[in-house]
Design a protein that fits this description.
Largest sheet: none
Order of helices and strands: HHHHHHH
Number of domains: 1
Number of strands: 0
Oligomer: single chain
Radius of gyration: 20 Å
Helix content: over 70%
Structural class: mainly alpha
């Protein structure tokens, strides 16, 4: 029974994290510039703790997603599972470790880089596998496009962080994060459908059968 709640924890956690981050950006200090500041820099100066909370929730939701996919015997074994696990651990680590000192800031940078690389790498391998699985085939095409967007975003942030001297790095990082969270969101939605869809259809069918029985009595 616990396995049936993995999809709800994954989908609900991802949605909650997205709403929290958006709310923090909208209602944050006007002196903080999300276009030029990375998420870690923004979180360090914001002081409200909303960004850190969202990162932890997203990391835990990703672990629930991975557990749910494994429970349904999805083709996520091997490197995709390891990479999603790395993404989750990196997010949770970045949420727990303060970012006040220089070494803490450097650690945040390492954790962020590990997280940003892991999702596109996992998605590249999952596209082909999911396309060959009838249960997950519907996610292959949108996942393919999101993987492409994540790859382009990863290339863009690498350029901005090195020869680009950090110009608009905050904007590029947020667009990359949006694409990567969308990858997880697509998987979470399909996981919910596969886990709860059949039982929901059965309950609806039972209601229709009961109604027809009463009508034709």
């Amino acid at each position: 029974m616990v396995k049936r709640f993995y999809p709800l924890l994954a989908g609900g956690g991802i949605l909650l994290a997205v709403v929290t981050v958006v709310a923090a950006q909208v209602s944050g200090d006007s002196s903080l510039d999300p276009v030029s500041m990375t998420i870690s820099q923004y979180a360090a100066r914001d002081g409200g703790g909303a960004i850190e909370t969202a990162m932890a929730v997203l990391g835990l939701a990703s672990l629930a997603l991975l557990a749910g996919m494994r429970a349904l015997d999805a083709p996520v074994h091997g490197w995709p599972a390891r990479l999603i696990g790395l993404w989750s651990v990196s997010l949770i680590g970045a949420a727990v470790v303060p970012s006040g000192t220089v070494w803490q800031g450097e650690l945040h940078g390492v954790l962020s880089a590990a997280a940003f690389v892991s999702v596109p790498a996992a998605a590249i391998q999952l596209v082909g596998r999911l396309g060959q699985d009838e249960r997950w085939k519907a996610t292959a095409r949108p996942l393919e496009w999101l993987t492409l967007a994540s790859g382009l975003g990863l290339a863009a942030i690498t350029y901005v962080a090195l020869p680009g001297h950090g110009v608009m790095i905050g904007l590029v990082e947020r667009l990359l994060l949006t694409a990567e969270v969308a990858v997880l969101g697509v998987l979470a939605v399909r996981l919910v459908q596969l886990t709860w869809g059949p039982s929901l259809r059965e309950r609806i069918g039972d209601r229709h059968a009961a109604r027809d029985f009463l009508v034709h009595r």
